[in-house]
Design brief:
This protein has 187 residues and is of the alpha+beta class. It has eight helices and five strands; from the N terminus they run H-E-H-E-H-E-H-E-E-H-H-H-H. It has a five-stranded antiparallel β-sheet with strand order 2-3-1-4-5, sandwiched between helices.
């Protein structure tokens, strides 16, 4: 094998092994400006877009022991890999596709699972980890928020009791006052 090809394949192998996912996109028809914009958006989410020969990627996937996705390695393909969540990368590609009608997600790998384009789009619709944690925190804090609202509605901002409470509060001491003289008379 040509030493230059070996260097390229080894570099791709390192990236594939370091990434928990691989998304294959068809970038046919993208301008240089659009492709640069796509790379910038992916980079903001912790992903990286690489263009390499399909034959090199087939060899890399074989050496890495990953499933065969040769059917997706046809035409002008680019490879998206990253060290963070797959959700951010898939969402960036899907949003870019909505805006420019390109690129198309062809196939992907998540661990050893092979995902088609539709599954990748479904992954893009899953909220990010931060959004899920935020929703979970809101659910956990909801009972405390409800208690705080009840307490706030019960008392004035000055800390005094509400008018309803004032009406019922004098009734209890009056009943006690009436009972006290009756006890004193019995002795």
């Amino acid at each position: 094998m040509n030493p230059d090809k070996k260097i390229i394949i080894d570099g791709l192998l390192d990236r594939v092994n370091a990434s928990p996912y691989l998304i294959v996109i068809d970038y046919t028809g993208l301008t240089v400006h659009q492709f640069t914009e796509l790379r910038n958006r992916l980079g903001a989410g912790g992903a990286r877009c690489t263009v390499a020969k399909n034959s090199y990627m087939r060899k890399v996937l074989t050496e890495a022991g990953l499933p065969d996705i040769s059917e997706g390695l046809v035409g002008q393909t680019a490879f998206v890999m990253g060290d963070s969540e797959v959700f951010a990368a898939a969402k960036a590609i899907k949003n870019f596709e909505k805006e420019f009608k390109k690129p198309e997600m062809k196939v992907g790998l998540l661990g050893n699972a092979v995902l088609d384009g539709e599954k990748l789009k479904a992954i893009a619709d899953i909220p990010s980890r931060e959004a899920v944690l935020s929703q979970l925190l809101g659910t956990i804090l909801e009972p405390a928020s409800m208690i705080a609202r009840v307490i706030k509605n019960k008392f004035d901002p000055d800390g005094e009791s509400s008018p309803k409470e004032e009406e019922s509060a004098p009734a209890a001491p009056a009943a006690e006052a009436e009972a006290a003289p009756a006890e004193a008379a019995v002795e």
